[in-house]
Amino acid sequence: MLQVHCVQLFYSLNDPAMEDMLYGAQSVRRFTGIRSGKHWETPFWLNPGFSKALL
Question: Higher-confidence residue: 2 or 44?
Fold first, then answer.
């Protein structure tokens, strides 16, 4: 999370722009340690494990 904040400050990005950069730039994802893929793009509340934990 600290790396995301550093990138956001370095490029003067707001939150939606940072999200776009994370989707678009592989180098930023690699630097921040965020994996791209199906689980990253899915909101956590749609995760089956999360809904089972609520019950």
Answer: 2
Domain ranges of the chain: 2-54
Whole-number Å distance between alpha carbons of 52 and 8: 34
Contact 48, 18 (CB under 8 A): no
Q: How many residues does the chain have?
A: 55
Q: For the whole model, what pTM was predicted?
A: 0.57
Are the C-beta atoms of residues 6 and 36 closer than 8 Å to each other?
no
Residue 35 banded pLDDT, cuts 50, 70, 90? confident
> What's the sign of the alpha-carbon dihedral 37, 42, 43, 45?
negative
Cα-Cα-Cα-Cα dihedral sign, residues 42, 46, 51, 54: positive
